[in-house]
Amino acid sequence: MELLGALRPADGKGWIGSWSPGIGDPTLVGWVTVGLYFVAACLCLLIARRQGARSRGSERLFWWGLCALLVLLGINKQLDLQTALTELGRSWSRNQGWYEYRHKVQRAFILAVGLCAIGAIGGLLFWMRRAPAPTHVAIVGASLLLAFVVIRASSFHHVDLFIGSRWWGMRKNWIIEIGGLLVVIAGAGWRFRRLLVNDA
Fold this sequence. Notes:
2 strands; 76% helix; disordered N terminus
């Protein structure tokens, strides 16, 4: 942590706008969420390795891909790279002279990302339609995580207020993100147990 803190510029400004490399969410919930990302990734890795050449290639490829996605999202959870992207876009829009129109560009970008995510989820569900039920559960969890990523990437003020508000003492972004991770872990754990039983 000290090494990452030392990377911050001394003048208090960030490397990109207000963003600099560092720990984005040093709270207990933040670290628990990172831990859940890596628990889920490890389960996906175990499933992909255990399946070997016996299973259909599409399902094995899904678990490898989900493992990679979870590792990247776990790293991003603390590096907060979407903030760097937002700051880069803000700086670019000012330099190009269209900063006052940024909300229209922002909406178009989020719409495009959202449509791509929906298309990817739909394609994944069709591609994996013959996969066992536990894999479908993991797909639902991965879909929740993708939805959360799109929501966070929007950076709209009212969206930030919504996900930052609390429900039963917990912030809504915690519920969405951790909920998606728990669904992935449940599906992956179920699939791994089935593989163990089949090998017994």
